[in-house]
Amino acid sequence: MGRLTIAYLAGDHAAAARAIDRALALNPNSTGAWLVRGWVECWQNRPGPAIQAVERAMRLNPLSQENQGVKTQLAVAHLAAGRYEEANDWVDEALHERPEGVPSIRLKAILCGLLGRIEESKEWLSRLLQLTPDATVNRFNAETSTFLASEIRAVMAEGLRKAGLPEE
Asked: Rounded to two decimals, what is the model's pTM?
């Protein structure tokens, strides 16, 4: 998972992409490398290639223990593509598998806000704040600034605002 760390912590998507390419050259059936490629593509606001990479990983290992995270990953990619309903369907599947998953709960609140489902977004926001009481829009922006494309971060922050998350 060092490839993901390069992109996540250092924000060096190019180095991560080179490492992923090398991993896939050595093992084109590496589920982990395809999943990491999906995240890195998504974080760079390339949802099409992100979805393709994640779907390939799912075909390679349909019974993965990581399916909850994979479904959240697909939800983020569909959000980045502006397909909020599809993103919502994927995050619902992720939450079905792991109802306490903070990234999925946050994403559900975001999507409900973006879809105009304000009452539902407030319910999900309440769940998020129970698990992460110090959550704010500014903290979200700060925590994602090293790896997430500004366009996606802006959309997600808007969803959090619509859900009622405080700015600070």
From this structure: 0.89
